Amino acid sequence: MTSEPYEFPVERGKIREFARATRARRTSYFDDPEAVTPPTFLMASSFWAGPGAAPFRDESRDWSRTLHGEQEFVFPAGPPRAGTVLTATQRVEDTYTKQGRRGGTMEFTVLLTEYRDQAGTLVAQARSTVIETSRAPEKGPEPPGPGSSGVEPPGAEQSGAES
Amino acid sequence: MTAPAELSWEALAVTTPLPEFVDEPLTRTDFVRYQGASGDLNPIHHDEQYARAAGFPGVFTVGMLPAGILGTYLADLFGPESIRRFRVQFREQSWPGDVLTYRGVVVGREERDGERLVTLELEVVRQTGGVHAKGWATVACGGAA
Asked: Which CA distances in Å does A6 have to A124, A145, B113?
């Protein structure tokens, strides 16, 4: 199941803001009108995702047991530049179950977001691996509820140690 | 704000370490600035009362902040346009006041589709020695083969 596509215009001001927040030192992020985006910049596409963007949104999900395990970005020709208008679609690429170290099962969901430019060329892929544990982490967070997009489901980033 | 010179294809061999980046101690302001920039406003990373009610001693780092810093660390070294693949896996949490060190090592080199590609293994390590995140990246290095 693929989500409804949504537009994500890559804006220079957002690049500057994101670059500053992630300690970037390259001056091009701040000075170049056609700056290449920082490697994890596509996280900010959550601002543009519509309500139909997250294909798993309607499933029942216990957010108090949900963790962000991994995040991956693939850029066939490097990250997109300021001025590009991307169109994003999301789908569940994979689901699997693992046994947790402290017992219980861990349900993994790999959410793939594909970004294409105005010409339809695949510019970027982003993979979020979300982990739902069968019991709450010992000091698990309160259920924060789904994020604005489901691109980066909120939760404690403490999970990879168990995978 | 001078960025280090790009590392050359010739200079990089398997097992070559990247120059380390030792960051300033993490602050709550860093978390807020990243959360505002990214749109992930999970209060567990900036609301002390909320974090304590959830059973934590206080707020802790939003993982995509060190992941993002690891990304710009790579971009500083190899150039923003060089990134072909970048993956981060989260391990133990980090906290305000933590001093994180960003480092990596070359694990592969290949020429493919006219590009010289270097593969890297990366780590974000706390001052305790604990691993906050592990990373893997492929970067284009030195233009056409």
From this structure: 14, 22, 31
Quote the minimal CA–CA distance from A89 to chain B in Å: 18
Comparing CB atoms, the residue among A149, A152, A158 nearest residue B64 is A152
The model carries a pTM of 0.87
> Could you tell me which chain A residue has the CA closest to the CA of B84?
A75
Judge whether A19 and A38 are in contact, CB under 8 Å: yes
Sign of the dihedral defined by the CA atoms of residues B40, B68, A160, B23, in that order: negative
Q: Which CATH superfamily is domain B21-26+62-144 in?
A: Hotdog Thioesterase (3.10.129.10)
Q: Please tell me the predicted confidence (pLDDT) of residue B115.
A: 92
- Say whether pLDDT at B128 is over 90: yes
Q: Is pLDDT of A156 > 90? A: no
Characterize B18-42 residue by residue with b for buried, 16 or more Cβ atoms within 10 angstroms of its Cβ, and e for exposed: beebebeebebebbbbbbebbbbbb
In the block, tokens 């949900």 appear at A66
CB contact (8 A) between residue A154 and residue B44 = yes
The domains located in chain A, with CATH, are 6-141 (3.10.129.10)
